[in-house]
Design goal:
Elements (H helix, E strand, L loop, with lengths): L4 H23 L6 E2 L3 H11 L3 E6 L4 H17 L7 E6 L6 E2 L5 E2 L1 H7 L7 E5 L5 E7 L4 H26 L5
Parallel strand pairs: 1-3, 2-3
Antiparallel strand pairs: 2-6, 4-5, 6-7
Length: about 170
């Protein structure tokens, strides 16, 4: 088959479109919220970085969970402004595999979510590297107007608690 000008144009446009979309798709994962089931390893990362954890308990069927992620959690990760204040991860309630808690104990999703009283989705909990809650949990998402202020307050409380806890463990040194 002899290539025509039309075929060449289509090929060039297809290639150009592919090249333009490729970098965008390569960067797309940076705004995703990491799904976490090994909390012992995450606790070590938290200790190293001296940061608390915002853990979003969610369910696949929950439209409010998706809305919360799209309106708050993903933009927070994308902005980079929270990277030095808190780690943001999520936990899907209907996960069927093994979960390793902060102490290395294996449990199922029901046991783990019951520990944090996360039976309603979405629920955001704020914990230290040992899995201890260090700020008041945010349960549900039906009032986006004030949610940002509640979320910011909880992050500040968790960050301060983590820093204070690290100072106490280090004999007062930050």
């Amino acid at each position: 088959m002899i290539p025509t000008n039309r075929n060449r144009l289509q090929y060039l446009l297809s290639t150009l479109l592919l090249l333009l979309l490729l970098p965008a798709s390569a960067c797309k994962g940076t705004d995703q919220i990491a799904e976490t089931y090994d909390f012992r390893a995450l606790g070590e990362e938290m200790r190293t970085q001296k940061l608390p954890l915002l853990l979003a308990f969610r369910a696949d069927y929950c439209k409010y969970c998706r809305q919360l992620e799209d309106e708050y959690l993903k933009p927070m990760k994308q902005s980079g402004k929270y990277a030095e204040r808190i780690l943001i991860h999520r936990f899907t309630l209907d996960y069927s595999g093994d979960i390793t808690d902060f102490n290395g104990k294996k449990l199922d999703a029901n046991e783990f979510s019951a520990r944090y009283k996360a039976s309603i989705t979405p629920t955001l909990v704020f914990v230290d590297a040992d899995g201890k809650e260090i700020a008041e949990a945010l349960v549900g998402y039906n009032s986006p107007d004030f949610y940002g202020a509640y979320l910011e307050n909880a992050i500040d409380t968790a960050y301060k608690a983590m820093q204070t806890g690290n100072e106490a463990k280090n004999g007062g040194a930050p």
